Amino acid sequence: MKKNQRALLVTTLLALFILAGFVSIGFAWTPWGKKDSDNESGQKANGIFGVKKQSGGDVTVDLTPVSFDDGELIIKISINTHNVDDLSKYDLREIIQLETGAASIKPVKTPRLGGHHNSGRIVFKVAELPDKFSIGITGLNSADKREFNWP
Q1: Burial of 81 (0-12, 13-18, 19+ CB in 10 A)
Q2: What is the dihedral of CA 55, 58, 111, 101, to 10 degrees?
Q3: pLDDT tens digits, 80-96
Q4: Is residue 45 part of a domain?
Q5: Which pairing describes strands 117-125 and 72-81: parallel, antiparallel, or unpaired?
Q6: 57 and 3 housed in the same domain
């Protein structure tokens, strides 16, 4: 009987390790085909990918570049507050700008704001992935400009 219990325990542990491997592989998958370090055109991301966070006033903003593909730079945005009652009055297309040194670009797509916790994707049309860039947000619950810089 003890041999059967040991065999069952070993089999169960082995199955758990295999399941853990499949789960960890599954979390690395993204539905939009993330290309963040080497895309098909051979451009390197060189450190531009990484979350940037700013807490200014009563609103916290996180920006994370997630991919560049077919001339679209996609940035994940997360905006959180517990003190601002109406985030829906802010139009992200109007208050966000991508600066690449020579160009200043407004987003072509942004999420709508509302409530206290917001997230979504901002899409900028750019010909190629810049080595360095910044994203400015002006007037989000303050007159000040928030600036996020990569790298």
Answers
A1: buried
A2: -40
A3: 988 877 788 899 999 99
A4: no
A5: antiparallel
A6: no
